């Protein structure tokens, strides 16, 4: 299958080619003979119902410092593309939300991965609240009295921004910690949204597992172990990756959420599990492909493109 693919992402020149998941998706697409374009979210425009992007033809190679060649800019109508990969990094702010509204004009005629409507409707820390019994004790609020009552009940808590990413702004408050007042003042100053407060899970010392689901089915996992003196396990925050297999509980979690992911067109998803609890469902720009590939000797990006091709074939006249 020959496809025209536009990749909406951050500047490709600055990525870490040994960690970036979008890079290996582009490598695999190029290997399959797809035509690639690269553009930034700010290069999108909408005029008279047509979504255009000032994009540049893209070639990629695994050569550090020489990993991408971009051709001359050209304005492309995204309706002429077969696939758009929406892969810019969060934060999930109004800029991100606006991009989903623009891409909604071309999807599903052009397959946008992930579905822009359901990306908009599934922010990581809120989407998970729709699956009963999977979250640890959790409070989402701006009400300081409610936060104090939650802390009185659970003692050891985590406080984090509702739309944060990469472990940024995550605080662990142990019993007796006197910084909650100052912390809430800081959150109020920088964010208009409520905060998310959760019971601290001591199991995080053994790791926070990232599980990749492709079209609703688990495809691989990696354990991320926080460094000494650090509450966050994200690799951006110094978490140590370890090879991991799925436990029975994690299989159950995947089975519970998988049908909803498939139905909503969330084809490439990364979930985070600590102990027996699901803490996040990442649909915006999930990562972890390269780490899992190295540990397990697999090629998850090939599985993702197989799933994309399957979606496209399923839409063609006469497809089974």
SSE pattern, N- to C-terminal: EHEEEEEEHEHHEHEEHEEEEHEEHH
What would you say the CATH architecture of the largest domain is?
3-Layer(aba) Sandwich
Mean pLDDT level: 93
Cα radius of gyration in angstroms: 20 Å
Number of strands: 17
Unreliable stretches, pLDDT < 50, 5 or more residues? Answer: none
| Count, helices | 9
Largest sheet: 8 strands, mixed
Helix-strand makeup class? alpha+beta
- The overall number of domains is 3
Catalytic activity: gamma-L-glutamyl-L-cysteine + glycine + ATP = glutathione + ADP + phosphate + H(+)
Cofactor: Mn(2+); Mg(2+)
Keywords: ATP-binding, Glutathione biosynthesis, Ligase, Magnesium, Manganese, Metal-binding, Nucleotide-binding
Family: Belongs to the prokaryotic GSH synthase family.
What does this structure look like?
The chain has 320 residues and is an alpha+beta fold. It has three domains: 4-116, Rossmann fold; 138-200, 2-Layer Sandwich (Dna Ligase, domain 1); 203-312, D-amino Acid Aminotransferase, Chain A, domain 1. 29% of the residues lie in helices and 28% in strands. It is built from nine helices and 17 strands. The protein has helices at 21-31, 94-103, 116-120, 124-127, 144-154, 180-190, 248-263, 289-296, 300-315; strands spanning 4-8, 35-39, 44-47, 50-60, 68-70, 74-77, 83-86, 111-113, 138-141, 157-161, 171-173, 195-199, 208-214, 217-225, 240-243, 268-274, 277-282. Strands 1, 2, 3, 4, 5, 6, 7 and 8 form an eight-stranded mixed β-sheet that branches. A five-stranded antiparallel β-sheet has the order 15-14-13-16-17. Strand 3 and strand 4 form a beta hairpin. Helix 1 (21-31) crosses helix 9. The longest helix is centred in the C-terminal third of the chain and has 16 residues, at 248-263. The protein is globular, with a radius of gyration of 20 Å.
